[in-house]
Amino acid sequence: MSIGQIIGWSVLALLALFVLISLIRAIFFKPKKREIPAYPDEQVDEARAAANLSAAVQIPTISYPEQDKVDWAQFERFHAFLEKAYPLVHATCTREIVPPASLLYHWKGKNSDLPPMALLAHIDVVPIEDGTEQDWTHPPFSGHNDGEFIWGRGTVDMKNHLICIFEAAETLLAEGYTPERDIYICLGDDEEVVAGGNSGANKIREALIARGVTKLASTLDEGGAVLPIPKVLGVLPESTLAGVGVSEKGFADIEIAVTSKGGHSSAPPNHTAVGELAKVVRDLERNQFNSKLLPHMVDIIDQASRRMPIYLRVIMVNHKLMKPLFLAVMKRIPQAACMIRTCTAVTMAQGSPASNVLPQRASIVVNFRMMPGTSTEDVVRHIRKVVRNKNIEIKVLRNIEASPFSSTDNPAYAALHDLILHSAPNAMIVPYLVMGGTDTVFYEPICDNCYRFSPFFMPLDLLMRTHATDECLALSTLGDGVRFFKRYIKMAADKS
């Protein structure tokens, strides 16, 4: 037998061995067995929760980037509503208005030596787009309860979350409960519009520090939810995904401008300032940031792979070796690409004020969504590197840096994991990177364990109505939300 034949047979033997080992591994490559936690039933006044959410939605606490457009009287109405709806909370906790309209509640625990925990929410909602008011099934600030859904702006983002926190606290106080550690309830007034040092959440954090609170044990804010995953072409069975946000992308709005002499449009140069700017856009869009699979994405792939049919598990059992393939595929799908790289979105452009005037200055605004580990400074360097025109002007308009990853090895995350498992035993529970922004980032200087999860089962069609027409919440999820917060408060507050 020749050396070539020996090598050929050796390769085939190794390949057969690899397939055999993969097959054996695939047989055991199934979802890990989990012990489903059991908890005593919790008393919940679901009718009161529904009535209070409906009432909360009827108060249009709309925020705008321009504060002079905000109707602050509506925020005062909301403060008064909470005080009336939750008398035990207001009798037990100290309440402070953090101007202009944020709220900070302090629920004193038994042991002030323990670092306190915080429950976060925001009072404000986004406006209704002009001309779409008549498209709503029920008026957007009616809080209409049809027996199946509560309709209106804020039912999902995020007065449902806020009301369930207060329902849980009010019920626990009625039952005589006192937490082991102090609890702060922090309600920002401008989460939907503000990024930077002037935000309500930032002011709340400064108020906490001024009162000696320099370290929080944990925070819990909006972010993930419990999502149904439809059956995918026989690859994945119908399942449920519960994502707990442990980090979030940063963002930066950056203006890029070019200048030229201008003049009359009857004698244009080969490239006007807008033409030169088009080259800048092309350079940015052709030179995307590098992609990478972070550990949370590997975990998602691992859990999904374990649920596939055996003939696919034989392949997917080796998914860690297939990272280049995953990256290549995900980069071609915008909804997936945003999970693996810093995103570049050219969103605004401005040139000449008249059609017959050559622009002396043309500019674009690019919104970058940064992966953890990529800073605004890195983005500016990237722009300088990939844009061939070295005479561009770059100005950072506003930005928030990406979050660090919070640990999944502490009592607060363990409580979240177990509570989700209790309500959705077959769910894929994964820590994940939040694509949008939350108030949580402003608490990170005083907290290492920041989580983003709302305990609501959200079908995808309802989730897509967030910030859009016909936002609504299924009544069936409201009671479970209150139960979740009652249990979470006791578990996270009482464990050291």
Q: Rounded to an integer, what's the Rg over CA atoms? A: 26 Å
CATH architecture verdict of the largest domain: 3-Layer(aba) Sandwich
**Average residue pLDDT:** 91
Tell me the distance between the termini: 70 Å
> What shape does the CA trace take?
globular
Total domain count: 3
How would you characterize this protein structure?
The protein has 496 residues and is α/β, with parallel strands linked by helices. It folds into three domains: 1-27 and 293-340, no CATH class; 46-231 and 404-494, Aminopeptidase (3-Layer(aba) Sandwich); 250-289 and 342-402, 2-Layer Sandwich (Alpha-Beta Plaits), CATH 3.30.70.360. Helices cover 35% and strands 21% of the residues. The strands form four sheets. Strands 1, 2, 3, 5, 6, 7, 14 and 15 form an eight-stranded mixed β-sheet that branches. A four-stranded antiparallel β-sheet has the order 10-12-8-13, covered by helices on one side. A two-stranded antiparallel ribbon has the order 4-16. A hairpin with a 3-residue loop joins strand 1 and strand 2. The longest helix has 26 residues, at 3-28. The N and C termini lie far apart (70 Å). The mean pLDDT is 91.
